Amino acid sequence: MSLTHVTVGLGWDPAPPTGPFGNTRKDIDLNVTALAFAGYDFVDAAFHEQLTSRDGALRHLGDSVTGDGDGDNEVITVDLTRVAAAIDTIVFLVTCYTGQTFDQVVNGFCRVSDSVSGMELVRVDLSRATSHTGFVLAKLRRAEASWEFVMIGDPILADHPTVALPQLTVYLGAV
């Protein structure tokens, strides 16, 4: 299957009320990030603090800080036809900006879909990342003239993409 456009979705439900009267809650703020690499060098990203990569190929469609609403709360679109020639790997990452572990997140999930066919390539229940604050979902790897999808599915300790960056080198290069 030749991929040209990919969508990454992230969803979760708001934190349940806490406190003696059930009237307070600590919001859970998950974030999805697409990080572009040339070999082992970080080049660019799309995430809640930078919505579009410099080449325009990676686009974050907006930040949810609570998980309110149904379906995907955050979405990144990837136009692989526009990715800069030097980029050979795009890594998809989920982090919890507010520091909760994924076992504290209600109905957390992330997924990757082929935007052209509508086929879901992978869907992951984030509770499997248990006591972690970060999750390396998958990567796209340039192979000759096309892109291939590679599932990763590894939990890490990272509440922000900058904290995760040093942990991602193991996923770069060959499968």
From TrEMBL:
Residue ranges annotated for the TerD domain, each copy included: 2-154
Pfam families (UniProt xref): TerD
Protein name from the UniProt record: Tellurium resistance protein TerZ
PANTHER family assigned to the protein according to its UniProt record, in alphabetical order: CAMP-BINDING PROTEIN 1-RELATED
Top-level taxon: Bacteria
InterPro entries in UniProt: Stress/Tellurium_Resist, TerD
